[in-house]
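Working notes for the structural subgroup meeting. M.R. asked for a predicted model of this chain before we commit to crystallization trials. I am recording the input and output together here so anyone reviewing the notebook later can reproduce the run.

Input as submitted:
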Amino acid sequence: MSILDGYLAEQLSDALINADIPQSAVVTVQETSGPAWEPVITDVPYDCSGWIDTYSTIDHVDSNVQVNDRKVFIVASTLAVTPVPGNTVAIAGSTFSIISVALDPAGCAWVCQCRT
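Returned structure, recorded in token form:
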């Protein structure tokens, strides 16, 4: 647990929302049900808030960040599930596949490397 967790994450989330930075977004996760020998995979959408950012040039050097990848921030308090690679996020008229996910140090936002 970080000293930034909890209260600070709540304060940062509230500040972002009050500043009208996040946009409406939908994270779609795949949930499995049914027996193991015949699983049923269902896409389940979860409404949330977030924003899109770009990677700097240095982020592309010696990494798996491709030129057209985007950094999508999802306000953690607005999402009922934990995003994972393979999920999708629809935001600002675009749909992206989530390649990697990390929680920012304050626990305020999920930082997703996304690809079209």
